[in-house]
């Protein structure tokens, strides 16, 4: 870490953050915990199905608001934000990668990546050039005009990753990024995530697969809505 | 893989500035200009709002429509039919009523009737029309033909018969008319001729009858100079009329010279005498104004002129009668079209839940989603409106060409129709679009 980074707040900071779904009966989906994910981290969150991974993703991705504690994204208290501001923050600071890619089937790879910059303030004139540059970066320079149906699973996920990072977010939030891929394609996607991390991107991968989780620099286990990490950074409160 | 993604100020630097108020790296001028206003509004939270300008809205909506062109076309079909019917109906009614006007100009607009109202004014006035009424009126500029006529009142004994011996008479009316009436009525003769000034002057016992009456009375040819009897008075039939352009009731009557009628049965008693005047085009109202004075300069009030009706009033009557019914049908078509658009948009919202979730994850606000779906349905409505207007106009043109009419469409109709389509689309898309905006992103992305 350089001296400058000491002034920069962590990307994710959970302070006794919790989420309870109102009942009846109330379900404590995410128990109060504290977590810090610093800039440039590569964190894996691993846990079996039903362990609270999705709840964690929804909180971290600003898709759901915690019912207890505080969640700071880039040092900003997200609890104080109005709905529109949370949406804007999500669009500008978080890049999502989903298991099922969520590419628009009738749009080319390039158009799908451009879509990722529609709502987060990237000027229209810059979008195509940036999208092209990002697709080249993820190794799809020859597939710019291909429709998703003409791409392999690995290529589709690369397009999705390009869409997530083209807007230059603080955090790349991946939900089972290799869940729909065969071993070879999964490997290429994980390598790409590692390369992005090496470039300085903060990456958070949520997975049920210990092998995928092992690729992270830090591994956090989630079980019954409780985060647990062997080492510094996370603590149940 | 040598290119780095964080060459420009990245999110961490933005975060530092926005959260801590650091301004080591000034915001690019373009961004500052574009978002300055919104930034001021939400300075407390220091989050630049999501963006979605009008060009984004248009391009996203257009892309949404074009990615399923067949479905979009079918969806718009309801509006096409509704608006098309609307334009066609309005166009056809105005075209038809202009045709009615055209016929009106040829016949009615060149016809003036003058009625004898002397008995209302003075019970002792007698027949208001002078003997030389035809000549007086025909001297007026713009008059083609003119004549006085009245229906003769006959008792049972004086019915029309083919021979004096036959007991059963025809219940035909007998009309005493000056020669000008038959000319003004513009008859088509089946056989023979009409009577003229000579017959009138000498009160000849001649008659002109309609073709129907002739066949009923067994008169097939005029070469034998057949006679009919009114009461016991014989009349030589000199003409059989096949058709008349004016005063169709002449076809059912026995028409005898005015002087003959006057001599045999006296002045009209039941119905007042009338005058039929045919004029040049455009002269009718003027003639109507002049006729009473020309006929009776001493007592113009004994005569009442009936000018042709105003064409504008006639057209308005016809148009309103026809179009009210058909406009209702067009409205029904439009309502069906709106339901079609609403239904398809609703299905599209359900189908595209994943896409809506993705857009929300990418930073789209609920209102951005609403606007997009609303723009899509509005575009479908407008497209349907434009296409429907073209189809409706073509229909009017086609009908007009086939019937050899002049097509008439009010410019307002053509201008309003696409707007009606737009409104239909907007109304139809409202509910689905609002529903789309309420889709929860976390929920939608799980699909």
UniProtKB/TrEMBL annotation, chain A:
Transmembrane segments: none annotated. Keywords: ATP-binding, Nucleotide-binding, Transport. InterPro entries: AAA+_ATPase, ABC_transporter-like_ATP-bd, ABC_transporter-like_CS, ABC_transpr_LolD-like, MacB-like_ATP-bd, P-loop_NTPase. It comes from the Bacteria. Pfam families: ABC_tran. Residues 14-236 form the ABC transporter domain. SMART domains: AAA. Signal peptide: none annotated. One of its GO terms (molecular function) is ATP binding. PANTHER family: ABC TRANSPORTER ABCH.1, IMPORT ATP-BINDING PROTEIN. This is ABC transporter ATP-binding protein. It comes from Streptomyces atroolivaceus. The lineage of its organism: Bacteria, Bacillati, Actinomycetota, Actinomycetes, Kitasatosporales.
